[in-house]
Amino acid sequence: MLSEYIQEIADSISDIVNYSIIITDRKGIIEGATIRERIGTFHEASISVIRSKRGETVDAEAAAKLEGTYPGVTYPIQNYTGDVVGSVAIVGEPEEVKPFALIVKKQIEMLLQEKHRTDSVMNRENALQSVIYEIANFVPGSSDGEMLLLRARELGFDPQLLYVPIAVDLYHFERYAKKIWDNARNTKVSPEDTVQSTKRHILFDIRAIFNHPLDIASMIGNSRYIILCAVDPEKRHDEKEVFKRVNRNCHKVLASFKKRGIEVSLGIGFFAEGIEDLSFSYSEAWKAIFLAKKFNWGPGVFDIQKLRLEELLSTTEVAIRDKFIHDKLSKMKDARLWEELRDTVEAWCNSGFRYVTAARDLGIHRNSLEYRLSNIKKITGLDPTRFKDCISLYIALELDRYVGSVDNVHKS
Prior knowledge:
Layout: H1 3-17, E1 21-25, E2 30-33, H2 45-52, E3 56-58, H3 60-63, E4 72-78, E5 84-91, H4 94-136, H5 145-154, E6 162-171, H6 173-183, H7 191-209, E7 216-219, E8 224-230, H8 239-259, E9 263-268, E10 272-273, H9 275-294, E11 300-303, H10 308-314, H11 318-334, H12 338-350, H13 355-362, H14 366-380, H15 387-411
Helix pairs in contact: 6-7, 7-8, 11-15, 12-13, 12-15, 13-14
């Protein structure tokens, strides 16, 4: 039954009705009682009530003949399927306590139904997490794809449909959790319960945004979630429209979390159809977040299909990488205005080599931009207005950013 709550229920209800209460299991053994000494003893009047599924009154004369029984009223407790799982009895003049006994019975039965609903939701969440974990670790020729597909479909999720996986990583969530623990010191609320509740509400927020009937969202780790954004069959050939919806919803998630004081990174995979494709795209979504961290981009939305250059750069052999950085950047790094020159190259490349756009993004006049570009050429021997030279500088800066990220990890 509700064994962990039984005593609490008995105490709270007896405080309200001001009568002694007992709650038994289906064998008539008392699990909760206003008088603690009665816990674990046998209440004989419950047996006939449990068998007949009907309430009974017991007067003083009848009670004297029954083991562990006092005058009062006893009612059966039924679960959500109608099965009797125990009984509740209130001690007192039968006619006096009968109305209270009915109220108590109904309240306990409502708690049983609520517990069943909660357990059902938790069981489904656990099953969904398990299926997604198996998809993420699917090995063609080794994993049982048919069984996995069957289990997924039982949860209302068909991996054979078209999905775009989206990885969600809470940014420095441990700092957020620490604030909860610090603030909980002066309250009676369990900080762990508050943290877990926050994680569940985050999942609710995600599901409220990715709300297509076939969208799937699940918590998969301490501060990680996965979204499988369903693609309407009619739009399977309109990739641009699909990713417009994906990006729009991802930025809604960013905004929603920001209101909670939580920063987040979202990694977008590619169109996936079938378990094997879905598994690969799932890993690509997480790779997008990995690359964003490696290149120190902070929280945001990152599409793996737009990060192939960074992916390639991250696999460059260390010796070759370091030599390339040194050859292209060492003189610029030695210059007094290193950070200014670095930002200039990046703004120049990101603007598509447009003077007006780059100057605006840097917050400077066009003439100042031209002076900086000329200065970079003088210092490095590379002309930022020549495509090949500019790309060399840009790649060197990206590699340097990546190396800086790795060095910071080692130092911490």
